[in-house]
Amino acid sequence: MARLILAALAAAMSCAAMPLPWTDPLRKGATGTGVMMLQQMLARQPGIAAPLNATGTFDDATEDAVRVAQAANGLDVDGVVGEQTALSVLATLAADGYRDDGKPPSASGHKFKILFVVPRNRSVQVEGSLIAANGSTVFRFGARLHGVNAGDSGDDVGCPPAAWPAWSNTVGLNQFSPCGNTPTGLALADLNSPEDEPDKYGPYPVVRMVQGLAGNAKFLVPHVRDGILVHTGKWPGWSPGQTLPNSEGCVHAEPESIHAISEILQSMGVKANKNRGGVLPYPYVPQGLLSIVQSGA
Ligand SMILES: *[C@@H]1O[C@H](CO)[C@@H](O)[C@H](O)[C@H]1NC(C)=O
Ligand SMILES: *[C@@H]1O[C@H](CO)[C@@H](O)[C@H](O)[C@H]1NC(C)=O
Ligand SMILES: *[C@@H]1O[C@H](CO)[C@@H](O)[C@H](O)[C@H]1NC(C)=O
């Protein structure tokens, strides 16, 4: 009896132990967004036989790539993505290697770019740079790109967080997961009129990440991650100058920074398009770019 209960407990725990964004082990035949994200990461594994296609179906090529990754990291080579392999993939293959091309936004027909360089550990506040069409940096501001904590969620799936607002000194839940860290890479972005809830999002126009073009953002935004904004808030218990709170994947900045960004953008001829929330397809031509580079490994 006790042994039966222990076995049941072990089975339950081995499922619960899969790190987000996955909730169950993945093996040949599995399909879906979780497999697609696994394939995108495995495609970065040195030594795989051929370019791995992110088809969303765990096929023979995926299994071979899993075996290569397992062997490279000293794991049991069984071609199945259980907890240890999933943790290893996240630790070694999550970084997209995206680098900003340094070109002025006008080179791609855009009116602005906002650039952030972030460490993997998102607990630190970083500097954001607002770059005009001609490539000059016109404003610098402090920002935090930390989503919820791993395990700090209301429903065990990352989103929504159990508490709001919340602060922590953790790495943050990975960018592939609901409400996790702000995804890295290049994305189309646009200025939108203020959100409806000023306490949560501030009273100023916000910059919306519309669609990924490179790096992790390319396969995450908007179909896996959406509603990612550069915004502020009237967070209870917080005042300007203090550490910014964790987000649900957005970029957080001080009220005066977000105010300044919206004023500067509009002075450069950027229109604050009427905020339609996360409606897809995005109803306007995005006027700018968000470029988020992960420093280090
Ligand atoms: C990936 O897709 C391309 C084009 O469809 C194909 O030529 C290639 O064989 C595929 N690679 C694998 C590993 O399946
Ligand atoms: C992340 O950085 C914070 C300091 O900002 C530090 O306290 C914490 O230990 C770091 N976490 C890891 C896992 O490195
Ligand atoms: C670049 O654009 C900004 C914003 O429009 C402007 O203030 C600045 O003078 C321009 N710089 C050059 C070198 O033209």
Features:
Peptidoglycan-bd-like; PGBD-like_sf; binds 2-acetamido-2-deoxy-beta-D-glucopyranose; disordered N terminus; Muramoyl-pentapeptide Carboxypeptidase, domain 1; Peptidoglycan binding-like domain-containing protein; eight-stranded mixed beta barrel; about 20% strand; alpha+beta; about 300 residues; 7 helices
For the residues shown, what is the average pLDDT? 92
Structural class call reads alpha+beta
Helical coverage, percent range: 10-25%
Number of strands: 8
Regions with pLDDT < 50 over 5+ consecutive residues? Answer: 1-16
Number of helices: 7
Bound molecules: 2-acetamido-2-deoxy-beta-D-glucopyranose
User: Order of helices and strands, N to C?
Assistant: HHHHEEEEHEHEEHE
- Main-sheet strand order equals 1-2-3-7-6-5-4-8
Shape: globular
| Proportion of strand residues | 15-25%
Return Rg in Å: 20 Å
Mind summarizing the main beta sheet? 8 strands, mixed, barrel
